[in-house]
Design brief:
Layout (H helix, E strand, L loop, with lengths): L9 H15 L5 H24 L5 H31 L2
Amino acid sequence: MQMKRAGAPGSAYVALMLGLIAIATLPIPPIPIVAGIAGLVAAVRARGELRRDNASLGTVPSLLGAIFSVIGILTGTPWFVGVAFLVFSAF
């Protein structure tokens, strides 16, 4: 007998929290990239669980988490590229 889970998967809310962290830490350059990547992974995992269980509860938090994570990654990436150019221009 298999028990059916009720409610949203926890990874949907983890994705939302990591996405919010990625947005909130934009002035601290390396953190949005790390939090954004982790949030995007959690959002994709949550979306897979939601599709598999055919559930709708948790769709919005996972979608918002993915959007916020991508924003954090995209705004932190120019800083990372700039540091890489600075390091390699010294050679």
